[in-house]
Give the backbone structure.
Amino acid sequence: MAIPSLAYVKKALTVADEDLALEIVKMAGCGLRNSEARAVNINNVVAQDMYRMREQVHSNTLKSAKLKHRKVGQFREVP
């Protein structure tokens, strides 16, 4: 696994369309996986600085699914 540098992220943002740029910011800023970034919604904000990740968008079906490696109902909190 490689963590992109800030310079790389900034360069990616300059060439990305609006939707991809928003996903990049959510992934880089909150540590979300790409499938989690696609599932972000206002209903899972639990505090001003805390988001409760409850689901992700499945890569094959493009529908909401439980988080990988977690049982139904489990979540993880991200800043």
In short: The mean pLDDT is 92. The beta strands are 45-47, 50-53, 55-57, 64-66, 76-78.
